[in-house]
């Protein structure tokens, strides 16, 4: 298969995608190519999960560490037994309650899943996305699709097709543009091998939703989840987490820095502050966070200020992404 100098961008209706429009990107997935596509969480960079050479292309395009496992995306929950050794009762219950949706289950991998897809682990993360475009594309391709976020490793995740173009345009085969992502944060990752769910990565499905326990992040268990071991979500500028965005902006600007900020809707910022993003509540902050980080970067600010959020419910996932961005 010939890779184009620039990725082909295929625009489709995000509610009722035209099967004919998806035929070419689906064929590219079957043939070992790399195709970016929207999910309800973020845009993913997909390859045939059962083709080691195709999956290796994901790692090259992203600059992703080879021991960082990938999530396998399926078109339908009934496909799960083809990817895992068994479906324990807990997993079956979570599938019934949350799929399609932003919940990834970690289970024992089926022998057919290559080690490169699982990050050399005996487990595999798998989910059925809720986005109609993602499910239609995967169904048309006829193969399970391994898909981490469609960005260069370590950068803010992409929540629109233009984000993918900027990060990966020349290095992949096609981008399916289904509009902006509805959720804006990666899926919750849960170890579902035991009798109780164990959250390995916070996401849109909260710990309270699952009545789940979180493992000690220092244990090896956390290695089964992507997005927990390496630098993630960081723009080129400094990221600072503050309790009072306007005051912190004034202090930074007095020190001669060019400042960007993510503030509440209607919140007044010092003159000259770049308003990289704004939000009304945690859900809108989650939805807009990665776009705001990218906007701050494009505005060439020295630092972008992000609000400290309560670490409960969805706030845990938002706080986790903000903290990881600030670590970068």
Automatic annotation (TrEMBL):
What PROSITE patterns does the record tag this protein with? YRDC
Reactions performed catalytically? L-threonine + hydrogencarbonate + ATP = L-threonylcarbamoyladenylate + diphosphate + H2O
Membrane-spanning ranges: none
Q: Ranges for the YrdC-like domain?
A: 19-205
Binding-site residues, ATP: 64, 123, 149, 157, 201, 233
Keyword list, A-Z: ATP-binding, Cytoplasm, Nucleotide-binding, Nucleotidyltransferase, Transferase, tRNA processing
Domain of life per record:
Bacteria
Q: Which GO terms describe its molecular function?
A: ATP binding; double-stranded RNA binding; L-threonylcarbamoyladenylate synthase; tRNA binding
Q: Its GO CC terms? A: cytoplasm
Q: Which InterPro entries does the entry link to?
A: DHBP_synth_RibB-like_a/b_dom, Sua5-like_dom, Sua5/YwlC_C, Sua5_C, T(6)A37_SUA5, TC-AMP_synthase_SUA5
Gene3D superfamilies, alphabetized: DHBP synthase, Threonylcarbamoyl-AMP synthase, C-terminal domain
Q: Primary place of residence?
A: cytoplasm
The family line of this record is: Belongs to the SUA5 family.
Name listed for the protein in its UniProt record: Threonylcarbamoyl-AMP synthase
